[in-house]
Amino acid sequence: MTSKPSNSFYINASQASTSAAVEHLSGLDNQTIERDLSNVLEAVKILDVHCAFAKCKRKTNLMGQNCEYCRERYCFRHGLPEIHGCGEAVRHDERKKFLHPEAAVTSRQREDLAKAKKRLHAKLTDMNLLRKQRQPTAVEECTGYCVAPHVIFRQYHPLKEKNTIGRECSTAATCESVI
């Protein structure tokens, strides 16, 4: 038994309604489904290019306004939220903005913030380079009186602008070896 498809389409995410829709569509042939789907798509296209206000059929595909409260598209006559029915949402939004204002940021403050971010980034980069250069590079045995292994390292000193060579002893004893 095939039933006649209805002109209204509802989308419901419950599993019972989904299985009922599948059962309803399984009895129909593919041509009926495709024809009805094309009718639905054409109706959506028509709705998208016309004003969403009731009884207004002006086209809005070239010029129109999108309402930020109801997300509909209206012609310029019905573009104001108070005219097409979003007046309460506008009042609520404006009241919220008035009671909890956001601090205004001047262009000078934005520039200062950008400069501070650049300086911080440069400083962090320099500190990363210094930290990487201070790591030990080789281990060798002491040739002096100390028997403990030493770590030879090269360290870049930014004020002297040259590499200095140092040696750390792994024990607390003093080492008299010469580099």
Automatic annotation (TrEMBL):
The keyword Amino-acid biosynthesis does not apply. This is AN1-type domain-containing protein. SMART domains: ZnF_AN1. It holds the Pfam family zf-AN1. InterPro entries: AN1-like_Znf, Znf_AN1. Keywords: Metal-binding, Zinc, Zinc-finger. Residues 45-94 form the AN1-type domain. One of its GO terms (molecular function) is zinc ion binding.
